Amino acid sequence: MADMIRIVVLTAVVVIAVIGLIWLAVRLAHRPRNTLLGGALSPELVSRAREIKESGQFDEAVFLIRGETGMSQRSAARLVRRL
Question: What are the two backbone dihedrals, phi and then psi, of residue 8, each rounded to the nearest 5 degrees?
Answer without folding.
Answer: -65, -45
